[in-house]
Every structure is written in C-alpha cells, then in structure tokens.
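# nightly structure sweep
# worker-07 picked up a monomer target from the shared queue
# config: single-sequence mode, recycle default, output format = structure tokens
# input follows
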Amino acid sequence: MQVMKGKNDIKELGTGIDDPLENPAEDCLDRSAFAKRIFEITEGTPLSTNMTIGIHGAWGSGKTTTMNFLRFYCKEAGHPVALYTPWQFHDKKEAWKGFVSSIDKGIAKWQGKKIGSLKKQNIFKRCLQKIRKIIPIARESNTIINGFTDSEYTGAAITAIGKVVDTLILAPLEGLLEQTKQKVQDELNKVLKDKRLFIFIDDLDRADPDILYDHLMLLNEIVNLNRCVYVIGLDVEVASQVLKNKIGLIDSKEFLEKIINWSFSLPLPTDFEWQELLDKEIENLDKNVKRDALCSIFSYLPKNPRKFKHFLRYISALHKSFLNRFADHELNWKLLYLAQLIRIEFSEVLEKIINKKEILEHISFGSLSLNEDKNSNLTQWLAEISKDVEENKKDRLTMLCKEVIKSVGITDPEELKNHFLVIESPELFTWKEYNTFKKELLSLSDTEITRKITDFIKRASKDKQIERIREFIKMLFRERDKLLSQVADAIDQEEMNLILNDAKDIMRICFLLLDINDIFEKHNPIFNPEIFKTWYGNIVEWAHFKNPKETYIEIRQQEIALAKKLTLKMAPQASLILETLQFDDPQDRRKSFEITHNEIKETFEKAVVEQILDRFRRSNGIKELMEGSRPYRAEKRLLFHVNSLFLNEAVYNRLREIVQEVSKNPYIHENFYEYVYTLFYATTNHLDYTDKEEVIKLLKEKEFITIIWNAVISRRMNLRAIGSLEKKRKIIIVDLLKDENAFPVPEWWEKELRDAKDRN
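# output follows
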C-alpha cells in the first residue's frame, strides 16, 4: 500500500467496506471542501489562539474521512501531524503512553528523524505526569460537589464548598502544572517556529468511559498551549450519554462545549453528491450487480456514507458468492435489493414478514392500499411488524415497506418469500444453471447423456445434494410447460414448430432419465411422487391440444409413451402416487387423456394389490395399514370396496395360496384376523375410508369371504380374540346377512365360549 506524500499521490483503497478515504481526489461528498474550510480557519487564526476543534457526526457519517482530508491539507502546508486513536486502549496508563507516543512520532516524522526533539527531552511526558495527578482529584471533587446537589444544601452552600475544594486542593496543583506547561510551550515555540502541531484524536466517543473522561480533562488542561491544534472526531450525543451514564456528569454536554471551542457538524450531502458516490461505487462492484435496480432504489439507500457503502458492497458480495447463479430474468432485482435493505436495518421485521402468511398474501396479491388509514390492512400489519422498532426509525420502515409493495409484481406468495429468503435458502437449481446443463446435455449422444446424468447423480449423492437433482428433473417439465404455452400463443406454423422442437428436446432427456435405475431405487428414491405429480400433471394439462393434428400428434404420442414408461418405473411407489392421482379439472380436459389415465391408474392399483398380498405374509402387515402414521388410502380403498381390483379370481387364487402357508407362518393368521376384525368393526362404526353399505356388499361376496374367514379360523385362538369377533359375527349373521350359514365356526371356537360361560 502506497503512503501518500503529496496531492497527486493517490493512496490505494483498502479492501474493507469501512475504509475511510485519505486523498481529497477520491472525494464525492464534498468532505474535502469541508475539511479545506476548517484548515483555512486554522491558518487564519493567530498562532497564540487556543484551538480544540470538534468534528461532529454520527457513526459512519464521514468524520474519519474528513479528518484524513484535514491531515492531508496540514501536511501539504508543512505542519506536523499526530494521529491518536484512544479506543484502542482499555488501560488508562497505556492510553497516556499512547497519546505521548503518537505526538513524539508525529514530530519525529515531520523532522525527518527517528527520535524527535520533544521525545528526547520528554517534554509532553513530564507535563502529562502532572496532569495525571490532578485529574483524579478533580473528578473526585466533582463527585463530591454533585453529591451535594441531591442534598438539602442550597446553591450558595454548594458554590462555597466548590470554592473551598478549588482553593485547598486544585489551585496548588495547577500552579505546579502551569510551570511545567510553560517549559513545554517554550520548547514547542523553538521546534515549531511558524508551524502548528495538529493532534488528531479520532473516535473518542468509542473509548472506554474512564479513558474518555481523562482525555477530555487532559485537553481541558493543556488546551492553552500555543501552536497546538487538537482535532477531535466524535458523536456528541453518544459521548455526552456515556459521560452521564458511566461517569455521572450531569451537565455532560456543557462539559464538552467548554472543552471543544470550535465545533463543526458534518453537513448532509446533496442528492447530486450521493448520486456521484453511487456512480463511483458501482464501478468497484461486481460486474453482475444490477445497476438499473440499484438506481431505482437510490432514494431509499441510507443517507450515511458508511452505511451507504456497506450496503453496496454487501450486494456486490452477494453477487460474487451466489447471486451470479441466477439469470437476469429469474429474480425481481429491485425487490431483492429492497428486501436486503430491510434485512440489514430491520432484521427482526423481515423475519416477521416472512413468517406471516397473511402479510405475504396481501403483498403478493396486490390487496394492500398504500393509504395509511387507521383501519387499512397496511396500517394494521405495519403496526404489528414494527412493534419493537425504535420510534425514530418507524417512518423509514414504512417507506421501505411501501416501496416493496409497489415493486412486487409477483402473484405467488411463495415466490415472494423466496426473494426474502434468497440468502438463507437460495434456489437449489437456478434457471441459469439449468439452461447451462441442459444445453450441454443436448450437445451429446444418448449414451453420453445417460453417462453425464449418472455422473451428476453420483456426485450429488456423495455430496448429499439429492434435492438439486430433484429440482433439475422438475424444471424439465416446468420449462416444457412454458414452451407449450408459447406454442398455444404462436402466430404461425413455423414459430410453433420451432418451439415444439425445444419441447421435444426436453422429452428426449426425460426418456433417457427413465432408463437410469439409480433415480428410482433406494428407500428414498430421487424420482419421488412429487416429481411424478409435476410431470404427469403437465402431460394432462396439455393433452387436449390436438388441433392442428400435424402440429401436436407427435408430442401427444410422446407424452402417452412417457407416461406409461414412467408408470412402470414408479410401481414401487404406487401407493403414494394413488393418494394424489386424480383430476380436479372443471374444464374437463381429462377426457383427452382419460383412456391413458385409466390404464395408468389400473397399473398402479395392480402394483398396490401385489403389495397388499405381500403384507399378509409380513409381521403387522395389515395392522400397519389400519393404525400406521400414513393414511394408506389406496390400500384401504382396494381392501374395503367391492368393485376394486382386489376382488377378482386371480387375487382369490393368490389368497388361497397364502392361506395354505398359515401353519408355517403365524403372521399370516394375524393379518387375516386383523382384516376381518376391521370388516366386522365397520358394520357398526364409522370409518373414513369406507361405509356400512360398502362393507355389507363385501360380506356378501361369498367366495372372497370364505377364503379370508377360513384363514381366520385355521388356527386356534384364545378367548379374548374369539370374543372380539363373536358378538359382531352374530349381529352380521342375524341382522345384516340373514344367513345362518355365514361365518361358520369350528368346535374349538364353540368350546371356548361354553367354557367361559360355565366359569361365569
């Protein structure tokens, strides 16, 4: 990093977002002109004038930059400068040493020596030693006097006490100090001649409270040294509050005013200056930062140079880290930038917005009036989210929220939420990444595509990024949906064909995907029911577009072939798919796909039938269907409805085979018992998945009932199990079926009931 030696020597900018400027040539906010005016005031002041200059402003307003510019002009005019930062010290002794050292270094550098003449004679050190003795006593004296203000003493009495303290304690010490100060003054006159020593004390308000007080007392004692100009950068409000709360100074502002005799408050930059700063900063930002979006929120950027730069460079960092994953059209950049402003300034408020579904819906659906009527939705939810916001910040929050509402242009609350959560949970697979990957795939042969996707899956599996693969697979059909929408709106046949070719390219990738077994296997397969729903729903959505035939026939045929192939691959997940496989279509577009749909549904139901049959051999196989955490709607629909695929001759034969194994497998008996028990129960109790009439129809299917009942009575049961069935069995025989021959029981069954009756 270059050290600035002259006006044209530009110091390299640091990499930190808060780096203050040092060269006036870099200035955009007219701080250099402000610093120049202060310097000219000092130059126009006699050398004998005592000067303590305060440069006042809030955190980040540019105090340090202004002081740096002032130092530049001081050096340019040949004045020695010393720079001291008291906030770096937490020990008073070390702070005093640091103060002396900074002055000695400044003089030495100005003289072009390793050790300056002041340090050789320890001029300032001896002076400060005297001051250090006075300050604690002075503080104690103030404490004593302030203590009397809360007592019954009158003002006159307090004044008298102050005079006694001053006469007996402070005056003798100050007499000794004056002698020392004169020696310092004599040496300064000799060394400086016609120059001034500028001592810059930055961020004094950030110093430890004890150090803050001591340093202010120091300045109070040595301010009358000629040729010394003390330049202090501080936030008066912060400093006075610290002195009041930590030190107990009641009149802390007056105390500061007594010490700082030349006060300059930083002026607010003009809109033109802010715009100039924005233009300059933009040049240093990531090239992908959306300049138009930034300019559109210019008036909402914080009017504090540090916060201003912080936000811009924060946005730049977001682009460098992950926002560059998104294509320009993917996000509402103005909305995103506004959301980040709220995040930085009102993080808890943003959290409330994100977690409040009603607010997201109000904003996205455009149902909010910007009128702040006391009964309006806007007024109500602003009051809710700003409950814990400081009063002086509420107007700014309201302004930002209103601009968010105006900028939305999004009708999906989830998409709006994603803009707010882009940092916490960015898109797994952006459209930019999708298009890049898809373009690469389409440049390959079918074999190469399969290999490429397989490698992608393996890498993602290793990195536990399965959701990224799922997102890519879903995005294939999302893009297809957009393309088919464009086909429907196309003006001429040529345009339609071009778009359809893109849609066919996607289908090519999809067919190849179905040949990769890795995406359908394992306990939690990559290709899950949610993806199936996305694909299948899209096929159904467009199935009714068949005219002109020459345009649509090929893609409609592709869809049917893909749907059937997909169905076979998804058979192991048939139960989950059947829970959601339905047509809620008021426009009745399903008719165009009804034949294929019924074939697919039947294929899935047959797969579930196979899974049910397998359950009769497993421990708690049927009980899990009745009491499991999942609803198992497909299984129950098949088991408890008379017209289902579970009731046919082929299944009956399979059930008979299973019953033959009951002696070897006790689970089989338990499962048939559980099924029959539920059937009996349903004749007198309501179940969500069936009704009494449907169950009665089942009970009248003699061939079916004979098989399952024989399975129940094939093994001897205890009295409790028998009792659970017997009462309902009799009701079914007498009242429902009116068939005495239904549900015959073996001798051991009746014997268990007789023995129980005899015992009672």
